[in-house]
Design goal:
Two copies of one chain form a homodimer. With about 300 residues, chain A is an alpha+beta fold. Chain A folds into two domains: about 90 residues, Winged helix-like DNA-binding domain superfamily/Winged helix DNA-binding domain (Arc Repressor Mutant, subunit A, Orthogonal Bundle), CATH 1.10.10; about 200 residues, 3-Layer(aba) Sandwich (D-Maltodextrin-Binding Protein, domain 2). Chain A is about 40% helix and about 20% strand. In chain A, strand 3, helix 5 and strand 4 form a beta-alpha-beta unit. The N and C termini of chain A lie far apart (about 60 Å). Chain A binds a DNA duplex (30 and 30 nucleotides) through helix 3.
DNA sequence: TCCAAGTCATGCGTATATGTATACCTAAGA
DNA sequence: TCTTAGGTATACATATACGCATGACTTGGA
């Protein structure tokens, strides 16, 4: 095997890849924890080495040339392989010290993780925790997070999931707002109510209507995916919200609406991590710790 | 996309990969054009960074650990991607200066390439030529060569082949040796002859026997794949050889055997290069030049 | 058993890569 | 039109990586 043809600086390829994907040298430098001049020089060095113009400099932007675009495809594959290497290496590591990235929705992050993380840090001071707060699914394969807390079962078959509980969702509102609502014997009679919505899609409406509710767009005048804002709007009397009981019951200004009708729905809570990370001492420690703490929280 | 997880020194992966494949730090360093201390430090840096022992040091050898072996798989994929990047980049290059690697059998290399290369170098002094002499097929995908001269049509569908001629193979021997042979009217009557063989396999014997020859192992007491040695043994009167007429007819000590029966076989000569390299100015220039010169040689 | 060749690890001096600072430029908003 | 923010390229000082030299050790052959 002749290695001559791969005897170039692989870090220059990395610079090219991240610059192309991020769009600017500055962003790429930041992403890699280097400085812009360094990235600039690495990309230029690659161009010189290959005698190929990878980017046209247009104003303050870098625009990929057709050559650059073609080579980017190959650079991406190298990046994908690097990612897999990284994933496998983390899985092999027997070191407890280091960082773990946890992905969770904003409510879980705000209401449940603080105490869990504080306790974990007391027991494992060598483990650094980074929390990525997002209501979107995190791509564990791409290492956006090491561990995710989610309310849906993962579809990918290289992920490991453990169910740690159920979120019971009630309808909550201020006492003042609820006093103005009519008495009902089941949710199908509930028309004239403002529910602070999560997004514009009809998925939630469809699910509830399947359960007998009679909702339409008129019931969702306020929409925000930022759940903590939902909570505040609810506290301002702007409507009711769907909220997990572990959190809603802790809000002194809110009460359950139509408690006699029972909860609206339940959502499972899954703790997920990538299969390859299960062999990492550190990730396994954090996973098991959170699993135990969350289970205690729900049961 | 978070780039944090690929923010390690990719050149350390390269060091690990080449060291694992070559078996020693010294060999790997040589292959990469670096020094052994540098490779040693790069591999050690990677081990420290990952907190994983990749190699056990056993005597003067490095032995992959099980962790190392698992990670090697991912490093290989990164190397493969680097190779493809390199191939594509060469194909994109519009620079004429640089080197081109040509793979050819020993006879072609000894008899035909000298003049062709000399002429090419006079016309294109900026192009460096490296010739890899092997009777085995070179892997163009892995960049063992940029251009190959072969007597079989390539099977891979990402190679470009151009037929540049036919090698006419005759049976050659010294006049003295041939004088002792019986008169025959066709090759099926030829039993008591020593043919200096190419290898131990029966493939040549099978091909000739299909054409009516009656050969067996007894006809091949001397076997060497080194064709120039075959030639010398033939000149020493140790037997006859199959040889292309472009070369055999130039040997003053050899004559065609049984010329009245015609040539033994013809072999096509293909000039092959990887599809992606066709867009490289340099490779295309060399390819076209050799194609023309070889064609002139055969016709 | 001894010797020669080859291997890895380490210290030191040199070469190269990186970060800081700065100049110049572009794009967007007031 | 002016201002601000953000972008790239370049010079200089500093930090890091590399090559050379060397020592310790292993391996194979005489």
């Amino acid at each position: 095997m002749t290695w001559k043809s791969v005897n170039f600086d692989w870090n220059h390829i990395r610079a090219f890849l991240v610059t192309a994907e991020e769009g600017t040298l500055s962003a790429a430098a930041k992403a890699l924890g280097l400085t812009q001049p360094t990235l600039s020089r690495q990309v230029s060095a690659l161009e010189t080495e290959l005698c190929i113009t990878l980017f046209e400099r247009v104003g303050q932007r870098l625009v990929l040339t057709s050559s650059g675009l073609e080579l980017l495809e190959h650079a991406r594959r190298m990046g994908d392989a690097a990612l897999e290497f990284s994933l496998a290496a983390t899985g092999q590591s027997q070191q407890i010290e280091g960082s773990v990235v946890i992905s969770a929705g904003e409510l879980t992050a705000a209401y449940m993780l603080p105490k869990i993380i504080a306790k974990l840090r007391r027991e494992e001071p060598g483990i650094d925790i980074e929390v990525v707060v997002t209501n979107e699914p995190s791509d564990l394969k791409r290492r956006e997070a090491d561990i995710a807390i989610r309310s849906f079962h993962p579809k990918q078959n290289d992920l490991i999931a453990k169910k740690v509980g159920e979120e019971v969702i009630w309808l909550y509102g201020t006492q003042q707002y609820l006093d103005k609502l009519p008495s009902i014997t089941n949710f199908s009679e509930l028309h004239d109510i403002q529910i602070i919505g999560f997004d514009r899609s009809n998925s939630l409406t469809d699910v509830l209507n399947k359960q007998g509710w009679k909702l339409s767009k008129q019931n969702f005048s306020l929409i925000t995916s930022f759940q903590l804002l939902q909570l505040e709007l609810c506290k301002e009397g702007q409507g009711v919200i769907f909220f997990p009981e572990q959190m809603g019951d802790k809000e002194p200004n809110l009460v359950r609406a139509y408690e006699h009708l029972g909860p609206v729905m339940t959502l499972p809570v899954w703790l997920v991590c990538h299969q390859e990370l299960r062999t990492s001492l550190r990730v396994r420690r954090v996973f098991d710790f959170i699993a135990t703490e969350l289970s205690d929280n729900f049961y």
